[in-house]
Amino acid sequence: MLDFLARLGRGGLGSLERLGRGHLLLISMLAGLPALVARPRLLVVQVFNVGVLSVLIVTVSGLFVGMVLALQGFYILSRFGAAESLGVMVAASLVRELGPVVAALLVAGRAGSALTAEIGLMKATEQLSGLEMMAVDPVKRILTPRLFGGFVAMPVLVALFSAVGVVGGYFVGVGLLGVDDGAFWSQMQAKIDLHEDLVNGVIKSLVFGFVVTWIALFQGYDATPTSAGVSRATTRTVVHSSLAVLGLDFVLTALMYGE
Amino acid sequence: MNARKIEILVGAFMAAGLVALFFLAMKVSNLSAVSTGDGYRLTARFDNVGSLKVKAPVSMAGVRVGRVEAIAFDKKAYEAVVTLHIDESYDTIPADTYANIFTAGLLGEQYIGLDPGAEEVFLVDGDQIVHTQSALVLEQMIGQFLFSKAEEGTQ
């Protein structure tokens, strides 16, 4: 019994400790921002790693998500004789929810895991300690550019995802299912609001980009410096950042649209 | 991969993102349809506005000429005061115009339809549309229908 209590307490203290270390790491990463402004080239390379390399998976997924939305939406909407609202349905679900959330999940899997493995391996092979020996702060030199790279790349990826998804919905809705071309766009424009829908989607994508890269970097930096440790940290990155994205999405939606 | 190639690809990536955002703003959202703010305001009083919403369209002969800007309640007259924002190009609305609240389709949202009158005096900023017709409330219509059916039965 006492053993069980002790294990529970150890687990609780351990997670609290990790949470604290995560926030301390975040503070020191943010403190590296002035140094990053002086060397923007580091940021460009990380935007390439997180953003450009994820473009293919994000746009292809966006295209298919938009096409499936149009197919399923048409099936339901045509029952009510409202097939012309297909454009609104596709665009609203993409811009408000699916764009930010699915793109963030894809980036967590595609780029977040890569970041964790990279940082974890740097730690395991003592490259981070080597930098410290040379009086270079590894957090400022290695982690800060990656954090802001993810922060910059995510809204761009989300915008691409939503735009490609709307085009995919257009192809299926107008091209395949015969929804009227004009009604598809005009109903969409009448119902989608710039501030209510588009700006809120961009805010979501900024938050997700920040959280996903933060979790990935912390898991890498905090990994046990063995091959098994790095592998565990990579798994944790995908699980934790996916859960964080879905949970935060609920909170943000409640804050933005719940009255 | 050399640094220059990376820079070019990142530049193309950012440009694609901007194009996507621009596409979403112009083609998907209502940015292109937002009136520039030029125009004038009219008020209309209704007994019942139904489920009319702010930003609902104001149309004349089916063409959108403005938007509902505000809906307020007059606590002395027990009426709804609706402020309409009419685009400046439509400045020839006769003074005896009728304002009706219609429903677009069976389940569609409500909008204000203006029925032009015959007078040659035009409404200007701040004027009030005198002739109005309230929204049709489904429950009232059903109630009236049942009432008249019941009367038929007693006769």
Write the layout of secondary structure elements.
The complex is a heterodimer of chains A (about 260) and B (about 160).
Chain A: H1 2-31, H2 33-38, H3 40-50, H4 55-77, H5 86-124, H6 127-133, H7 138-176, H8 181-191, H9 194-221, H10 227-257
Helix pairs in contact in A: 1-7, 3-7, 4-5, 4-7, 5-7, 5-8, 5-9, 5-10, 7-9, 9-10
Chain B: H1 3-28, E1 39-46, E2 57-60, E3 63-74, E4 79-87, E5 98-103, E6 110-115, E7 128-129, E8 131-133, H2 138-154
Parallel strand pairs in B: 1-7, 2-6, 5-8
Antiparallel strand pairs in B: 1-4, 2-3, 3-4, 5-6
Structure at a glance:
With 259 residues, chain A is mainly α.
Description:
The complex is a heterodimer of chains A (259) and B (155). By secondary structure, chain A is mainly α. Chain A has 10 helices and no strands. Chain A has helices spanning 2-31, 33-38, 40-50, 55-77, 86-124, 127-133, 138-176, 181-191, 194-221, 227-257. In chain A, helix 4 (55-77) runs parallel beside helix 7 and helix 5 (86-124) packs antiparallel against helix 10 (227-257). The longest helix of chain A is centred in the middle third of the chain and has 39 residues, at 86-124. Chain B folds into 2 domains: 1-32; 40-143, no CATH class. Chain B has helices at 3-28, 138-154; strands at residues 39-46, 57-60, 63-74, 79-87, 98-103, 110-115, 128-129, 131-133. The A-B interface holds A 41, 44-45, 47-48, 51-52, 55, 80, 82, 91, 95, 153, 155-157, 159-160, 162-164, 166, 185, 188-194, 197-198, 202 and B 3, 6-7, 9-10, 12-14, 16-17, 19-21, 23-25, 27-34, 107.
Q: What does the average pLDDT of chain B come to? A: 83
* Total beta strand runs of chain A: 0
User: What is the chain-wise order of helices and strands of chain A?
Assistant: HHHHHHHHHH
Largest sheet of chain A: none
Shape of chain A: elongated
Q: Count of helices of chain B?
A: 2
Lateral strand order in the biggest sheet of chain B: 7-1-4-3-2-6-5-8
Radius of gyration of chain A: 21 Å
| Quaternary status | heterodimer
Beginning-to-end CA distance, first to last residue of chain A: 47 Å
